[in-house]
Amino acid sequence: MKQSALFATNNPLWLAQFDNSTLLIKVLDLCESVAIYIINSNQQVLYWSQGITDLSGLRQEDVVGKSCLPEYKITDTDNHQETIIKISSTDGSDIKVKKVVQVLYDKKNVFAGGVVLLAILPKPMTLGTLPKMSAKVTNTELGSQNFQGIISRSPAMKDVFQIISNAAETEATVLVRGESGAGKELVAKAIHDLSARHDMPFLAINCAALSSNLLESELFGHVRGAFTGAIKDHSGLFQRAYGGTLFLDEVAELPLELQAKLLRVIQERNYIPVGGDRSIEVDVRIVAATHRSLREEVKTGHFREDLMYRLRVVPIFIPPLRERREDISLLLWYFIYQHNTANFRKIEKIEPEAMRVLLDYTWPGNIRELHNVVEYAFAVGRGTTLRCSELPPEFREPRRVNQQILSSVPLSAAEEIVAIRQALTQSKGMVTVAAQLMAMSRATFWRKRKLYGL
Q1: What domains appear along the chain, each with residue ranges and CATH number?
Q2: Cβ contacts of 308-313, under 8 Å, gap ≥ 24
Q3: Most buried pick, 16, 31, 288, 404, via CB within 10 A?
């Protein structure tokens, strides 16, 4: 807009030779293939490009001169605004587009309508076509590798995304399994957002965060006088999430007595509030999550087998971050870009040594821990380069090779590469010391180092 104003100011005589309406028509002719339309203050369509016809399937002769649909309307407060709207495409499906508005005013400075541009939002790319990882990930790359808020370029997540998409089309109960910080709630939210219930509530509760009595009241509600302090009726999560999705995090921590009540809800589609005497109907899709194996919990008597089968209709396992190391750099830059927008500090590059340390780390806290590391760096560091000295203390202190990796469980190739690199770093390149850290003979260490090209 500033450039246009400057052009008009500096070239008044050149512009004066043209009729305004003729000039506008010429400009619109150039924009015919772009999804653009013009409406007046009464929300009547004055111009409807071929581009928007191709996008929406609404023909010019059926739209021009008539009131536009609600999603296409604008107000005088929409000037320079960018919003995301949902429209019906030519194949009948709903698509999300970015709506950019330029409000127009008449000579008396009264709202006269506006010009609107629609831009299709980029769809997540399939993992097989993702670009190779660069030292610095651009915002464009991050956007193309964002599946419903889950950032990944790892082939290990390809099947996860496909199961999420398929499960979202059904009403099946889903059990998400993954380590702490791996993003289980993001998976649950993605299932909800892609399902037919996306316009209804998505509510979540951590089953390990409350006592048994409080958890029962929070899930199923209670009636007035049910217990001391119950001064009024309380609607539980099952009632508040009616028509939507309820996410039960750490469901393995659910007490046995509440497991029986949850089983009834799933089977009978109703429940009785605490202290109540009548049942309440349920219309809620359940997505549960745990970092434990429910089968093992069943064996130890801590979890009902019948409930396990009811919850585990569609199991989804999220690989830990150490098993999808190509995501570390991607997520690192994703969180850096988020914090850069706060204008407190702007990181433009990462010191090579710091990047190597971050890539070699085993990330027991997964994505949550990685996010915390970025927050720490922004808090303690300054300048445009993230340095090794700005990482939390555990990244700077000499530490032994992860003993869990060196257990009797066979290592994967990726884990062994990480362990060998870490041993070489700690030993400052001294092979004999590195082999000792790895509990290997010097010859075995040399052989594996050659095998992996380290």
Answers
A1: 2-120 (3.30.450.20), 122-139+330-397 (1.10.8.60), 155-317 (3.40.50.300), 399-454 (1.10.10)
A2: 310/173, 310/263, 310/266, 310/267, 311/173, 311/175, 311/251, 311/266, 311/286, 312/173, 312/175, 313/172, 313/173, 313/174, 313/175
A3: 288
